[in-house]
Amino acid sequence: MSKISQHNHEDASDRIGWDREQMAQKAAQDIPDGAYVNLGIGIPEKVARYVPEGREVIYHTENGLLGMGPTPEDDEIDFELINAGKKPVSAIAGAAYFHHADSFAMIRGKHIDVCVLGAMQVSAKGDLANWSTGAVDAIPAVGGAMDLVAGVKTIFVITQHTTKQGEPKLIEHCSYPLTGRGVVSRIYTDLAVIKVTERGLEVVELAPGVDFDYVQQRTGCELLRP
Fold first, then answer.
1. Rounded distance, CA 219 to CA 104, Å?
2. CATH topology of domain 20-224
C-alpha cells in the first residue's frame, strides 16, 4: 500500500482531490534517480518526505546545504540547521554546507536538475507568476525564484488548483508579474497532474473521484485530455 493511501486525512469525507501531502508525493514520484533538487517554500518543502524507496535524490537549499533530509522530529531539531524558509531540516550522510553565494552559483551554473515551486498563476504556455500580485500594497517576495527558473533545468509547480476565492490559478495568460516565461514543465494540483506541452496544458492524471470536466470548469484555459 502506498504512502498516499496510508496517510491519515482530516475531514477526508469532505475533501475533493488530493491533500497537500499527496500532492507532494505525486511530485516526488516524478523526480528521477540521482537528481539534484531545490525545494521552494510551502507545499514543495514536503516533497523531501516522499523519496520513493530505492531512489536517491539530493536536495539543495538556497541558503547553503546540499543533502537535505526529511523534516526532523521535535526532539531532533537543530535550529542551526534550517532551509531557505527558515524551517528546521535534517542532513543526510555526506551532506555539504557552503556559502550562500556558492549555492546560487550552483543554481545559475545550471547544476541543479529539478526545482519544485509554488505558484500564484501558471499560463497555458508554462509562464510562472509566483512572487507578487502586482497590487500597489503587495509585498514582493521573489527570493531566489527568478534565479531558480532561469538556471534549473526542470521546473515543477505544486499549487492548489484555485485560489481561496475559487478563481483559477491555471489561466491562458498570467495577469501577475512573471517570474519566468515558458519555464514550467509539470503542475501538481489538488485535482490533477498536468504536463505543459507545445499544444497547451495536458492532463496526465486525475485525482480519485475527480473527472476531466470538473477540472476544466476550474481552469482558466483549455485543457488537453489524457
1. 34
2. Glutaconate Coenzyme A-transferase (3.40.1080)
CB 28 within 8 A of CB 199: no
**Which is the catalytic residue, given 10, 45, 53, 62?**
62
Q: Could you tell me the CA-to-CA distances from 111 to 35, 93, 163, 215 in Å, in that order?
A: 10, 21, 33, 35
Q: Which pLDDT band, with edges at 50, 70 and 90, does 12 fall under?
A: low
What is the Cα–Cα distance from 197 to 60, expressed in whole angstroms?
27
> Strands 90-97, 65-69: parallel, antiparallel or unpaired by DSSP?
antiparallel
* 137 or 108, greater pLDDT: 108
pLDDT at 9: 44
Gap between the Cα atoms of 150 and 135, Å rounded: 24
Distance of CA 109 to the CA centre of its chain: 21
- Kindly list the domain boundaries of the chain, sorted by start residue: 20-224
CA 65 distance to own-chain centroid:
19
Helix, strand, coil percentages for the chain (3-state, nearest 5): 20, 30, 50
Average pLDDT over residues 25-31: 97
Look at residue 140 and tell me whether its pLDDT is greater than 70.
no
And the C-alpha cell for 44? 514543495
Mean pLDDT of 166-182: 96
Q: What is the pLDDT of residue 41?
A: 86
Gap between the Cα atoms of 126 and 138, Å rounded: 23
Q: Would you call 21 a catalytic residue per the annotation? A: no
pLDDT at 51 over 90: no
